[in-house]
Amino acid sequence: DAAPLPRARIAFGAAREGSGLPLPRLDAAPPIAEAYVLQPQPPVGLRDLAVLWRRYRRTTRNGPRSELDLAATLRERCRRGILCRPVCRPRRGNSARLLILADASPSMDPWRPLFAGLAASLPLGRLAQAGLHYFANLPQARLYATPSLDRSEDLDALLRRHAGAGLLIVSDAGSARGALNRRRARQTVDFLDAARRRFAQVVWLNPMPRHRWAGTTAALIAAGPVPMLPLDAPQLLRAIDLLRGTR
Hints:
Blueprint: E1 10-12, E2 24-26, H1 46-55, E3 59-68, H2 70-80, E4 88-94, E5 97-103, H3 112-121, E6 129-135, E7 142-144, E8 152-154, H4 155-161, E9 166-170, H5 182-196, E10 201-206, H6 217-222, E11 228-230, H7 233-243
Parallel strand pairs: 5-6, 5-9, 9-10, 10-11
Antiparallel strand pairs: 1-2, 3-4, 7-8
Helix pairs in contact: 1-3, 1-7
């Protein structure tokens, strides 16, 4: 007789109002003889994220005049015939600013390890200013400082504070559940239209594969003026180039 196949009991947690169907979770460990070690793997590692943020640069000169300006020094020498002191200029620095808005709704649970990588990598990116805030399903009146949606902040006040920066949005946009919600799509497009008036560049990263967007809210949002890219290392590199204004 054939050996019985391993079985596992599946339980569903309680659904919160407006959060959609809960994700299934194992109620008990399946009776499998072999031992497995399951380690969450984010789509992009911490080191790769830090390197990518350093690629996002807008170099400007600011601060004390501590760097020799050779061309200006030579012009001054030729004009006066004598040089009292060299001409100096401020050093170049990265003035790029970045705001990341990440979707912390239940459908994004499989990508929670990425949130920790984003928070840890931004201080390593040598950006002039970087912020990470969270929302549920779509950015509305309040944004949050943690993935558990704690410590809320007014959306308009936060957007005004980061005006002129690059905006990166991380969300499945309804494609993880295969849902089509036209009202959510219209509200999201309205938010993106307002964001494009305040931010230099806006890019959307979707962790679901591109072929899963068809027939979902993500497809409607992707058809708008803001580029939507899959979330992996090559496409994240492409997103950084778009934030820099490189097409």
